[in-house]
């Protein structure tokens, strides 16, 4: 009985802490949200309030219909999808190999990858321009996907390898006896078991691509082919005083798809290890 | 064996994905003329598109494009302006890339030196007869020259002006900076967030009226930085007491303060007008030349000459079309349209014959300011000066640094940056 | 069969290595190549080999200013990482407390900063939070009857402001990684430990931490590098041209940017980049070593 009461008190405390934490976290976003619904002129000033002044949907209308927002959204989805597919296709086998087999050069390779990844990518701009120009992929989404996938590849390998390491080998050996090929085994057993790590990695790739604007605005020449982040950057890079409210509306719209995805994927975040039938 | 097959399949998929993406743009032609499917424009009946990169106001560019395209409709030449964020840096990558470079660019004259040093621009005389500039204001023509050659076709020019909110400003605009300062002291309440005059008081461009007015300079024609010149230091120290009454001083803060009626006046340029009008403010304009410094000379802002340059790579196939575009851009009609629709001061003197142009208050004020204004230096080294000057002004205005010491630090940084260029 | 075992792992790595070769290795090699030339504004396309002289000049960039930037960077990295991992761990633990029904809602809300594109976050904070005239923090202070504070002016306060923003932007990843790792801890371990009378702290110390450490270690190492390399936050908050706030805070990357990249001398700045890369490699070796000692 006392234990139950103690538990209730603990949960109440925990809930309070989380509500406060969420509120603090959301302050900048609530601020942007309230501005995005505010009429012209109320944009930057106003008192300390999270309620919009002269509420209006005008800003959302402006960004959705006066700017190629939907086109940018489509481009963002295309770029993210392509990058996730390419980087996972490359990184999963490598992470699996690095986790499962002790081959000559393995630890050297892993450490080298980490060091290589330390090179600040801003400095690579010029060289990447050369690569794209040589391969005639400037101004294409394909070229950008290769760059994004390549920059996320090391992270993906490391992140997934760590998780693969925790999956007991015995499970694989059992399925090998059943005659499954390596690929079948990776697809049917390893990937489902490593689901949380795979999802976190994919989300990280998604976010990187979703947020990247420098390469997008440099390597794509036609603003019609920009991603959301690139398009918004071009829209507001210097002068946002004039339509700060439109800009905040655009930011909210650009963040919404990711939020929906976060919410959706959470139920898949439960590991195959605890949910599946590993513990026999 | 199965495993190998599986892996090969995975790799093939991977490659297919790459190939599929790469095909999203048809690029069968060799890179040198990939953007130019039409044959060289010796037969004038083929439609030609001339691409111009810019990083400015899209409304202004549209005004230019509309007028030029109307004039060149019979030649089947179309000008397309494309906005590129951070255009000068983009041109560093694309400037010599025949496949992707634009044919022309449109920007202020201060980046001209860098582009010419990089050897990506063609002098206008290589394209057309520079006689098209005969009617242009000499100041704007000279600003477009490097080493005696004309690289920039001036289209319009701008200077900083004194914009004030008629509903808030009390009395006349002061005739001296000292009176202005007194007005600011009595009409500024930083705690309440209301200001008399705001300015980007740590930005080199916006402090230029003081620096030039005191007789100081940022960099001379021999690429020698002048930050430790006693007059520059004096100007920076003088600017400090104004800065203390001008809020944070970043572009968006000061612009918003003025647009929301929290600041009675702002030192800014014609680019602010559309925002001010959208905010519904009844504003007046005064020339900075009319406000005298303690030494008796008027405030002397930099002037910026906006215009178009031609990229070398465009000459091979579009020379004739570019020549016609330049001629059309130089016409007085472009200037008239810009003046009427966007309030820009035309570079072509003939545009001023139009009564609509003469009637524009902003334009007459800018024209008047041009008497004391100094064109921004256009040597490549100017690009290395903005940072150090801003550091110096920031140190003095925001960190209370000693002006002489801040100037010495900034001068050393600027000299180092210029030495690093070679 | 024996031979196959040698090349099979490498075959698995080929696609990834190919991609990395193109996107990461080539640019580094190319930067190394440019660092040996005189590529600058005056030799934009017609540059030629000039040997190591760029390196001789680049060494002068690694002066006392660089050392203090290096110090700032180390403090920045360590503080951020300690707080990130510590806070991330306890938040994730809290989220996994049995009986917390709103877990999914809390978690989604805490992920929100992650969904906002990075430069938009920075702009939102610069204008919406820190600005002296319009920022929420200053409005809040004036509500309390206090004076305006310029959160980006002095070095110390700007450091804290940048760190607050960095934590805001980076914590979601840490939380979800640790949360994912917590899912993998075998719950039967807890059950038996609880039966043995172990309390919450004991279970955390002896079961949770050891179990999740190998999983989050790679993520922590990667984040450490990202934090070390962080450029956007400090640059865009305090020293973007036209928006300098008065703070003279520098990390090694912003210092190099300020001193070597403004002059458009690609040969020289490439040499600085290569030397900087060496510094980062040294740093990574240090990190590696400390990690291994941790595990021992």
Secondary structure elements and their pairing?
The complex is a heterotrimer of chains A (280), B (422) and C (296).
Chain A: H1 2-36, H2 58-66, H3 69-100, H4 106-117, H5 125-134, H6 141-164, H7 169-177, H8 182-193, H9 195-211, H10 214-219, H11 228-236, H12 244-265, H13 272-275
Helix pairs in contact in A: 1-12, 2-12, 3-6, 3-9, 3-11, 4-6, 6-9, 7-8, 11-12
Chain B: H1 2-22, E1 48-54, H2 58-71, E2 77-83, H3 87-94, E3 104-108, H4 112-117, E4 121-122, H5 138-143, E5 145-146, E6 149-150, E7 152-159, E8 161-165, H6 177-187, E9 195-198, H7 204-213, H8 230-243, H9 251-259, E10 263-268, H10 273-278, E11 283-286, E12 302-311, H11 315-330, H12 332-342, E13 345-346, H13 355-358, H14 361-369, E14 374-375, H15 386-399, H16 403-421
Chain C: H1 2-34, H2 53-59, H3 64-95, H4 103-115, H5 118-130, H6 136-143, H7 155-183, H8 187-195, H9 200-229, H10 232-239, H11 252-261, H12 266-295
Explain what the structure shows.
The complex is a heterotrimer of chains A (280), B (422) and C (296). By secondary structure, chain A is mainly α. Chain A folds into two domains: 2-61; 67-237, MetI-like fold. In chain A, 72% of the residues lie in helices and 0% in strands. In chain A, helix 2 (58-66) packs across helix 12 (244-265), helix 3 packs parallel to helix 6 and helix 7 runs antiparallel to helix 8 (182-193). The two termini of chain A are 34 Å apart. In chain B, 42% of the residues lie in helices and 16% in strands. Chain B has helices at 2-22, 58-71, 87-94, 112-117, 138-143, 177-187, 204-213, 230-243, 251-259, 273-278, 315-330, 332-342, 355-358, 361-369, 386-399, 403-421, and strands spanning 48-54, 77-83, 104-108, 121-122, 145-146, 149-150, 152-159, 161-165, 195-198, 263-268, 283-286, 302-311, 345-346, 374-375. The relative contact order of chain B is 0.16. Chain B contains 16 helices and 14 strands. Chain C has a domain at 110-264 and 274-296: MetI-like fold (Orthogonal Bundle), CATH 1.10.3720. Chain C is 75% helix and 0% strand. Chain C contains twelve helices and no strands. Chain C has helices at 2-34, 53-59, 64-95, 103-115, 118-130, 136-143, 155-183, 187-195, 200-229, 232-239, 252-261, 266-295. Chains in contact: A-B, A-C, B-C.
